[in-house]
Amino acid sequence: MLAVSMAATAQTGTFPVKPIRVIVPVPPGGSIDTIMRVIAPRMSESIGQSVVLEARPGASTNLGTELVARAPGDGYTLLANTVGLVANVSMFSKLGYDPEKDFAAVSLIASSPSMIAVHPSVPAKNVRELIALAKQNPGTIKFGTSGAGTLTHLGVELLATQTGVKFVHVPYKGGGPALIALMSGEVDMSGLAVVAAVSYVNSGRMRVLAVTSPKRLPMLPNIPTVLESGVPYQFESWVGVVAPVATPAPIIKILNEHMVRAARSPDIVERFAKDGADVVASSPEHFRKVIIEEVAMWGRVIKQAGIKAD
Prior knowledge:
By secondary structure, this protein is α/β, with parallel strands linked by helices. It has eleven helices and ten strands. Strands 1, 2, 3, 4, 5, 6, 7, 8, 9 and 10 form a ten-stranded mixed sheet that branches. Strand 1, helix 2 and strand 2 form a beta-alpha-beta unit. The protein is globular, with a radius of gyration of 19 Å.
């Protein structure tokens, strides 16, 4: 009855009548938080209600993700997430949600490549030299990530699997702590989200070897791609928003329209581009397809790498 009532409300154009909460399942400082802090205020202006971000980190994004899976399907509780949404189902033997069955896609907001960076003490000057160093010293190069099973973890494990090397994983509680660990020399390397770490590129506290995009980024023209070093590897991450699966289609449509309008604002597109991110602002149908495809893709990667989070 609630779903029917809310659908009717949406169709009359009165939704929303109170603030919308967006759960961010990672600590402040990572790419999800960075992107949503830009989108939320503009979406608030467009939709006529406050869009409030609420950090619920923990359990490799599972804590916040499960909270939204169990929330009422009324459009007032959403989830902003990335690879954890589609990869955790292959890494955890018991999970309190199903990424394909428990969520309704709202929009894939943006995509972004990563940067492979090392501490200045590491002698490698490009990714090819880094791989050679890892092969000469197996199991000694430590890489920091924003947590087990996160994008930064899976991205480096994908590189390791494709090149036949072994890195030592050191998980942290979020992208911010992982970045600090790299710059302090606590770890040797990291795969960093461009949008979260671009301001540190010229700090002298880390050396960026390459970006993982097919082409160089306009805002980082002097940094080569991994492909340029002769290593056949590339991948890009994304940030998207979903709602509980019971959320009526009319409400999803309203949320998507205002989210897309906010993301496609010229100043936001320009701001994201400066940070190395591309605005996607997709339809719910497109994002739904991405979720299904990446559940399968990351399942294969995780199985091949032997990654288990529990």
